[in-house]
Design brief:
The chain has 245 residues and is mainly alpha-helical. Helices cover 68% and strands 5% of the residues. Helix 4 crosses helix 6, helix 4 crosses helix 7 and helix 8 packs antiparallel against helix 9.
């Protein structure tokens, strides 16, 4: 039975809760990997095949995904991944901007110097590797930069220690990844731009300069939004640079 909201060992629902969460996380991984595309229609049974989760767990996970705006029920057809219209993309980036800029003071205050230095060293090393890399190696490095980009920004928001904000940012990040995967080609040239913009953020972070870090972060996010909308930045075409979350 359930006491005070907790599920006791004898409760028949005990095994269902982790299954539902596992199903949700596996669907989330499909979004992150670009295996659920904007505008795509997918059935619950197809999600079972893609995730390996049970149909019951998928059914329980779907309402949460709908509430978060990641799936929409289409009567007689199944579930649709939202299309990436301009409003969708702008809304996601605007929310991202609000959250990340609000996180800057806690990032400055709480992120250990050793972590900041590791980020600086990693980006400097990647810049050198990209300059020296050939085609295939450059593409692999660009993918590494994209992955590190996502984890770095998520780490910034995590310093706030606010579970509600962290969850909202997580969902927003999925939507932005969908935009990136659908609209932008990841290239070594694009990765160099990302590295330079990251260094412009990390250097004032190392110096514990809130204003300078906020300015560099705002520019970074604004550039990313422009590229996701196909607009040019700094004389480049939208296809010549890689946005990130």
């Amino acid at each position: 039975m359930t006491i005070g909201g907790r599920v006791e060992s004898g409760d028949a629902r005990r095994g269902e809760i982790p299954l539902r969460q596992a199903a949700y996380e596996r669907i989330e991984d499909l979004f992150k990997a670009g295996l659920l595309r904007p505008g795509e229609i997918v059935t619950q049974r197809a999600l079972v095949e893609k995730t390996g989760a049970t149909l019951g767990a998928i059914r329980e996970a779907v309402p949460r995904l709908e509430a978060e705006g990641l799936l929409v029920t289409v009567p007689q057809r199944g579930l649709m991944v939202p299309s990436l219209d301009i409003g969708f993309v702008r809304d996601a980036y605007q929310l991202r901007r609000l959250i990340e800029l609000a996180a800057v003071p806690t990032v400055i205050d709480r992120l250990p110097h050793s972590v900041v230095q590791e980020l600086l060293d990693w980006h400097s090393n990647m810049r050198t590797r990209l300059v020296e890399a050939d085609g295939p190696e450059g593409a692999r490095i660009a993918d590494e930069v994209q992955a590190r980009d996502w984890s770095m920004h998520e780490g910034f928001v995590a310093t706030m220690g606010n579970k509600l904000v962290i969850n909202v940012f997580r969902v927003t990040a999925i939507k932005i990844r969908m935009a990136v995967q659908s609209r932008i080609q990841v290239t070594p040239y694009n990765a160099l731009r990302v590295i330079e913009e990251h260094l412009a953020i990390l250097e004032p972070l190392a110096a514990r300069n809130v204003a300078a870090m906020s300015g560099a972060l705002a520019l970074h996010i604004d550039n990313s939004l422009k590229l996701a909308l196909g607009e040019a930045i700094n004389g480049s075409s939208g296809q010549a640079a890689m946005p990130e979350i």
